[in-house]
Amino acid sequence: MDRKKIDYTSATHSLESALFKVERIPLFAKIKDSTNSLKEIGIPDFQALFNGSDKTLLSVVTNNYQLVTNEKALEIGKNVFCELFPMVKKSDLIPFKVISTKKKTSCHIDLIHKDVTLEKWEQDTWLPFLRISNSYNRTFALSFEIGFVRELCSNGFIFDKESIKVKFAHTRGQIPVKFEVDVSKLRKYEIEFVNHLNNLNRFYVDPIYVLPLVLKALNHRFRLNDNNPKIRDRELERFSDTKSLINELTDIYYKELKPTAYAVLNIVTDLISHQQDYKTIPLFSSHINSYYNKPGDWIQDFTLEIQSQKFNMEEYLGEFKTYLN
Asked: Rounded to two decimals, what is the model's pTM?
């Protein structure tokens, strides 16, 4: 399994697939009149959003729905990034990851700059990234979140989103978008993140605990004892595939790094960052941001727990110790 370093070549091909023109089209319906003839009537207050490239339907919205295109969202995101890191130019920002649904109703664009790194962490090179999330079917509103990605293998996750606030003026026509960036919070997050990495790197994790620990970090369960034999067999197969993958990743990261919680973090982030290849998490594409937030929540919880002298791994694992290797 080849771990790939971040490609600093702009992901133009992926980006172009997300920057298609969006068309708003009035809705009509055909009904039979008193003479039994078909009559076309307009449907007031509603419109359809279509992909201008392939003419596929994206969603049905109200007339006062405020459309923010992915292109507009990207431009705002670049402005936000430059507000956070004033030393960079917008033209030098790289969309290193573009994730979109099959129907392109929503997408996430991750921006980085190759010279913006966490200098205080000497073990590995980690870069802060800005995730831009947007949708055309109201799956979620336009949002911006701060994450960190490891340069060597492109493993990333969302650390916190509280440093950026976005406000819309909900009026017809062009949408004024205002954003507030708390740079001091970002610096605080960077320091916290490095402290978490140091704590994880000092904590030894026996290989037998890696599988349940990863599953706990992702809050990922299997219905191995379901009363329905079809569900049980399906879950047993899914568990077997997931277990094999995590064991393989454990071999890779325990050799590359050390048998520590930091290696476990890389296994967790590898799983979520490469689900397009692994396909081991059902409905992952519908809950991408949720999964990208889980490692950040886990390291804050786990590093706090392991500071206690009474820490016991099996007690910490709780119900997940049933997945022990």
From this structure: 0.87
> How many CB atoms are closer than 10 A to CB 308?
9
> How far from chain centre, in Å, is Cα 244?
24
In the beta sheet, which residues pair with residue 59?
A: 49
- List the 143-150 sheet strands across, edge first: 94-100, 106-112, 126-135, 143-150, 155-160
- Residue (of 247, 258, 238, 257) closest to 208 by Cα position: 247
Burial 214-253 (b: 16+ CB within 10 A, else e): bbbbbebebeeeeeeeeeeeebeebbeebbebbeebbebb
Q: Report whether 126 contacts 48 (CB < 8 A).
A: no
Which has more confidence, 287 or 179?
Answer: 287
Q: What is the pLDDT of residue 261?
A: 97
Give 275-314 pLDDT, tens digit per residue: 988 999 998 888 888 999 999 999 999 999 999 999 999 9
- Say which DSSP state 225 is in: T
* Per-residue pLDDT tens over the stretch 38-58: 777 778 888 899 998 888 999
> Do the bridges between strand 126-135 and strand 106-112 make them parallel or antiparallel, or are there none, so unpaired?
antiparallel
Contacts of residue 86, defined as CB under 8 A and 6 or more positions apart, other chains included, come to: none
> Residue 306 class from Cβ within 10 Å (0-12 exposed, 13-18 middle, 19+ buried)?
middle
List 251's β-bridge partners, or say none.
none
Residues 6+ apart with CB under 8 A from 179: 76, 79, 80, 83, 144, 164, 165, 166, 167
Q: What is the pLDDT of residue 243?
A: 96
Distance CA 284, CA 289 (A): 9
Name the range with the highest mean pLDDT among 95-99, 117-121, 159-163, 318-322.
Answer: 318-322
Closest CA to 164 of 209, 123, 211, 129: 129
Instruction: Give pLDDT, residue 228.
Output: 94
